[in-house]
Amino acid sequence: MDDAIKRNDLSHVVAADRAHVWHHLSQHKQYEKIDPRVIVEGKGLRVWDATGRETLDAVSGGVWTVNVGYGRESIANAVRDQLLKLNFFAGAAGTVPGALFAQALTEKMPGMSRVYYSNSGSEANEKAYKMVRQIAHRRHGGQKWKILYRERDYHGTTIAALASGGQEERKMQYGPFPEGFVPVPHCLEYRSQWGEVSDYGLRAANAIEEVIEREGPDTVGAIILEPVTAGGGVIPPPEGYWPRVQEICRKHDILLIIDEVVCGLGRTGTWFGYQNYDIEPDIVTMAKGVASGYAAISCTVTTERVFEMFKDDAEDHLSYFRDISTFGGCTAGPAAALENMRIIEDEGLLDNCLKMGDRLMGNLHALMEKHAVIGDVRGKGLFCGAELVADRATKEPLPEKQVAAVVAAAMARGVQIGMTNRSVPGLNNTLTLSPALVVTADEIDRITDAIDGALTEVCGT
Ligand SMILES: Cc1ncc(COP(=O)(O)O)c(C=O)c1O
Q1: pLDDT for 11-34, tens place per residue?
Q2: Which one of 123, 159, 261, 327 would you pick to mutate in the ligand 1 pocket, going by the greatest count of ligand atoms within 8 A of its CB?
Q3: pLDDT > 60? residue 1
């Protein structure tokens, strides 16, 4: 395949890209000297760029998305067939794949029953916020309009989603932000705010209640949390955290919004991340892995209780959810999502995720024995992080430039890994790994071998 790419001279494509594409999250000064990377083809976990170079992608398209791997003909066929039948109709009406995917999805989510379609994770979260605000107006006399979010979590790139983002570097220079989004402390035990304690999870959850009490429980309508924080450092919840969070939400009548944009579907070895922790959410948002990037789709899924609050007064012309997302009516999304779900199920990918996740974690722990620069290894399923430190005792973070050099050195070994970036100032020091759920044992070993070599090259042993 790389030979075919080499045979096709793609220099005009690279030139067009360099001249006209404004890349995401990129400082473009570098492209005055070097070419931007243009990805041409993918199969399984492998991708080829415009120069014909092959890379093993350990981050599912860079941002934990391509969960079933590249080159899935059956998804392409499902989308093609659906597009020829009906490509779009505005979401005030139903479509065949929209209805069938909503049914299939909610079957995987006991307690949840309604699916609202849009196009991106940010948008799915915006919908959730609008629901909370409207509930506040209709049920709580305009009170309970505040939405809590957690330090280090990320919920998207639009202005309101950024307002609810716990990664200061993403927010800088984009304010002022809308009111009513209030931070609660992070739950990363490795960087405990209370020193070494035996009940860290409980303390981190109780810290949420302190914020609620400070703000006034009757002003707080919802809290949004990632089940496992992704870009903020790959942070699985500490022991005892979730049961207490759930208890606090119930006590203060606060809606629990779970952001599954990274964990859904399958990334942690269960359909959804929250299902690892016995959580009963009110609203669940999802995007990336819903159709593995074969089509744009996001969903805001609610309980029937939340849904009912928007239909109880048919005489009031303001009482229903007056929201629309034009491309939420594209049928390619749910058509791709249905086939994506079938693949996960029929190929036993949740099981593979758990097995390969164990292997990945085991390999990372072995690397930790060898490389003092690894301060902590964390993760769930095929969603792992290794936090790099200049000094294990003080936990001083490895400078971001050196972490980036490790990523570059892995790339030079043919493996693309990720790192937290432009998130928490001074703490962009965690390597991130999220290979497709079809990853094999050999590929896992290739990924960790590349990290081993990269750490030796950049940091010494
Ligand atoms: C946890 C989480 N929520 C929301 C988003 C936003 O999704 P999108 O980029 O599709 O708007 C992201 C994106 O990385 C994410 O990681």
Answers
A1: 999 999 999 999 999 999 999 999
A2: 261
A3: no
Q: Which two tokens stand for residue 111?
A: 């307690």
CATH number of 74-346: 3.40.640.10
Q: Which atom of ligand 1 is nearest to the CA of 298?
A: 10
> What is the reported pTM?
0.97
Peptide bond into 176 cis (omega under 30): yes
- Least confident span in 135-149, 305-319, 329-343: 305-319
User: Considering Cα of 148, then 151, then 153, then 159, what sign does the dihedral take?
Assistant: positive
**At 84, which helix (H) or strand (E)?**
helix 73-85
DSSP 152-207: T----SSHHHHHT-S-HHHHTTS----S-EEEE----GGG-TTSS-TTHHHHHHHH
Query: 2-66+348-459 falls under which CATH superfamily?
Result: Aspartate Aminotransferase, domain 1 (3.90.1150.10)
> Tokens standing for 187?
């739950």
Please work out whether the CB of residue 258 comes within 6 Å of at least one atom of ligand 1: no
